[in-house]
Write a structure and sequence with these properties.
Blueprint: E1 3-9, E2 16-22, E3 27-29, E4 36-39, E5 45-52, E6 55-63, H1 67-74, E7 84-91, H2 94-104, E8 109-111, E9 114-115, H3 119-130, E10 136-137, H4 142-161, H5 177-182, H6 186-195, H7 200-209
Antiparallel strand pairs: 1-2, 3-4, 5-6, 5-7, 6-9, 7-10, 8-9
Helix pairs in contact: 3-4
Bound molecules: zinc ion.
């Protein structure tokens, strides 16, 4: 059982109060005036993206239990080293959400939970498929995920803007890693991945060097 102490500011009387939250306690009242200051909602599970230094691609799956324990469970089967949780997205129906993600990423599917995608691209894709923020995001890939997302947003804006006032179409924006993967057949993705370092830290440097 996870137990947390949270510090809250009451919106009614501005008093600060501390409350204990756990699996069994999901509400907190203000210690001074009794107003309800917090109501926590428990999700049924998460959809996760995990990566491994020595394995190309990522694992995308779901668990109703501790995602970090799940990472330990699937580590150490054959390959030395361990899987790291890159992102975990909260879900009220993890099985349904996992199926949705797997269907949308079918072109990069290798086997079971294994997908031939760079961790950063995978996290950005799952985020857009499920249309929600991750409950956990690995600090090392956070800047690269934000960067990729910003590029996508600008690209989407450019698409809506069309030709400018002079009637001259804007030059096409440079091809992003995202485009590269979406245009590739699975075989090409595998070739590309084998030529490029799979670890996210190195991918970040690639992303920022251009
Ligand atoms: Zn109060």
């Amino acid at each position: 059982m996870d137990v947390y102490q949270v510090t809250l500011i009451c919106a009614e009387c501005r008093c600060e109060s501390k409350a204990i939250l756990s699996n069994a306690v999901s509400e907190a009242l203000c210690g001074a005036c009794g107003a309800k200051v917090l109501k926590a909602r428990r999700f049924a599970g998460v959809v996760y993206v995990m990566s491994h230094r020595k394995v190309s691609g990522v694992k995308i799956g779901m668990t109703r239990h501790d995602v970090f324990r799940r990472a330990k469970q699937i580590s150490g089967t054959g390959v030395p080293g361990h899987f790291t949780v890159m992102a975990a997205f909260p879900s009220s129906n993890p099985m349904k959400d996992e199926r949705k993600v797997h269907e949308r990423l079918v072109r990069a599917h290798l086997a079971k939970e294994h997908f031939e995608l760079d961790p950063v691209v995978a996290v950005a894709k799952v985020r857009s498929i499920l249309n929600r923020e991750p409950a956990f995001l690995d600090r090392d890939i956070e800047p690269a995920v934000s960067q990729l997302r910003q590029e996508q947003r600008q690209k989407a804006l450019g698409r809506f803007a069309g030709p400018d006032a002079t009637g001259v179409a804007k030059p096409p924006s440079p091809v992003s890693q995202e485009d590269l993967f979406s245009r590739m057949e699975p075989k090409e993705i595998a070739d590309h991945a084998s030529r490029t370092p799979s670890h996210s830290a190195r991918f970040i440097s690639v992303l920022f060097s251009s």
